[in-house]
Amino acid sequence: MSFDLFRIFESGGTSLVEVPYTVKKPKQYFYTPVGGGTKRCIDLVLIALFIPLFLPLLAGLCLLVKLSDKGPIFYGHKRIGFNGREFRCWKFRTMVVDGDAVLERHLKANPQARAMWLRERKLDDDPRVTALGVVLRKLSLDELPQLYNVLSGEMSIVGPRPVVHAELANYSGSVKHYLRTRPGVTGLWQVSGRSDMSYRDRVKLDRFYASRWSNILDLWVLARTVPAVLMSRGAR
């Protein structure tokens, strides 16, 4: 069994072309994600504690996003989770509604931005991001709706950053480590520099997390999440 992925590359220096290629799914199917029932129980306890505290903030952010510009409040992007299952990862919308068209025009007009996008799937100055979106991303407030993903069992409070199909190609032999986990709202990547890190280093962190998971490691990540967010290290 395999995933059909698409690699975007520059053809003739003028356009972006999508070419299918394959990343094989590991032969082994994992019956329980890293941490098993213990990690899941802790997630549910934390959700029960967090939701009452965050409800006023969530309500206020919903209002701000709705009033900032026309468009939906939430944005659900398809990501890959435990055992290769696809799910919608929810965020507050931080981009303009016609973001795909805006990105395409920007990449065609800026070769350096195109190279960065192909390499890291991120941009230093993303033209799609709204003024409010810049603030939400800087403080990681756009990620709060993922508490719903945790409640539904698609994500965990702590884990690897959720990726899209195409990004699995960057994991090479580490794919199986990523697929053993539930992606996290926060994780080693988020507290270790975020976008300031290379993609290769991010993969190493995900592999380390899957191989060396413990409740102590999760607590360490949670303890570092708040200062990392307040200092906005590597936020884009």
Unreliable stretches covering 5 or more consecutive residues:
1-23
Mean pLDDT: 83
Q: How does the helix and strand content classify structurally? A: alpha+beta
Query: Helix amount, in percent?
Result: 40-55%
Number of strands: 6
Task: Tell me the strand order in the biggest sheet.
Answer: 1-2
The percent range for strand residues is 15-25%
Order of helices and strands: EEHEEHHHHEHEHH
Short overview:
It is built from 8 helices and 6 strands, in the order ββαββααααβαβαα. It has 236 residues and is of the alpha+beta class.
Report what the structure shows.
There is one protein chain. Helices cover 44% and strands 17% of the residues. By secondary structure, the protein is α+β, with helices and mostly antiparallel strands. It has one domain. It is globular. Residues 39-230 form the Bacterial sugar transferase domain.
